[in-house]
């Protein structure tokens, strides 16, 4: 018998003697059984929930794991790791400290009391209390820290809050001893706009064609071929409420003709965004002709407006981009997925609480095509995770989550497909915000859209998911982009289901039809 097994026996014996109950010693449950028997619960003098034997077993199990950490790699340890993480959090929070701080921060931000919010945020930061994704997304929204096309910062205090929120989200990688003063001075340092490659021959100036009225060679047929409405939500039924309805348009194979190989001169290649951990671009996924066809379909069928009807989402709303929600057909999805598959993470990252690790499985068919015009912004936000949308195989009904309960899929990465790059210089970028070396100062890295390229970055989890904005588009400009998600197996790792609060991530963009 091993050292720990002997110790375990001895301590159990002691515990049951202390307890004065020979009876309960016989009823000891194995360490793997999470639920104590009612008898052993009531037998405990110290707690009505946990018996001394259970405490002993738990302590020994944890000690054994500390001495043999390689055992933690075993899949069987998943629940235990998750429970241990939760316990660690509760201990660190000192019972309800974390949750009360969370609500204080939320209220202060809602009331625009940024100085108060900074004090609470600072406390959360120094105590290394990690917030939940939903809280993080709400706070970022409340900060409303949009900068304008010329880079001017609207509210410096909101920016300082945002900086601390980012640091809190990264608590595991931060050393609280390095905290300096939150003083004045510059709040954002901007890196030069990152351009994966200069413009190449053959790009199609889609925005220019739209402005000139020459997007189509001939008037588009009505109804537009190979697309049909598969889901419609009237404005008053949208949550959060919206002033406009939302329709999902399903495509049939060949709706977007894939350009034959000879006119696809380059094969896709990956390039990492410097200074933005986890973000990378895959170039040449779609040809300019394919991008054009997508915009033609969206424009012919009609991009819908999007405006929140109520609540703080309305008060702080950006001018929201018009959008076309497209449920892509399988051949198109397959082509997209095969093009990026060699470059994307093959497994979802495993987080400290044991979530993740599932295999990459596909692309969310629910594409959100956005059109931004002059000065339109998608305010700084953190994207939530989404399930795999699709049609019910038997009834044809649109399903927000179409994967089977036995094989659930959830997203872990955002995919942004840039459909045009004729955007006024250095505007309309996707801009990432990261904590810099100095507290109170964020580092902004803007990525210039490149036609046919796909930007990919982690989302949906507080560790590693990136704060970003769709930056303002310059004078007379326009940007067209598709947002969708990369899906991973979620079985056995908990579903990456965002908390209910995530549904208000961005004006109206985060609900049934749109992003966030
Ligand atoms: O348009 C962009 O550059 C960003 C869009 C975005 O962040 C989103 O759709 O979630
Ligand atoms: Fe986003």
UniProtKB/TrEMBL annotation:
Q: How is this protein annotated for GO cellular component?
A: endoplasmic reticulum
Q: What Gene3D superfamilies does this protein map onto?
A: q2cbj1_9rhob like domain
* Superkingdom field: Eukaryota
**What organism is recorded for this protein?**
Naematelia encephala
- Where the record annotates domain Fe2OG dioxygenase, the positions are 362-489
Spell out the molecular function terms from Gene Ontology. Answer: iron ion binding; L-ascorbic acid binding; procollagen-proline 4-dioxygenase activity
Cite the record's Low complexity compositional bias ranges.
Answer: 15-25, 37-50
UniProt entry tagged with the keyword Metal-binding = yes
The protein in question is named Fe2OG dioxygenase domain-containing protein
Query: Which residue ranges have biased composition labelled Basic residues?
Result: 1-14
Question: Is Metal-binding set as a keyword in this record?
Answer: yes
Provide the alphabetized UniProt keywords.
Answer: Dioxygenase, Iron, Metal-binding, Oxidoreductase
Q: Which cofactor does it need?
A: L-ascorbate
The segments labelled Disordered in the record are: 1-50
From which lineage does this chain's organism come? Eukaryota, Fungi, Dikarya, Basidiomycota, Agaricomycotina
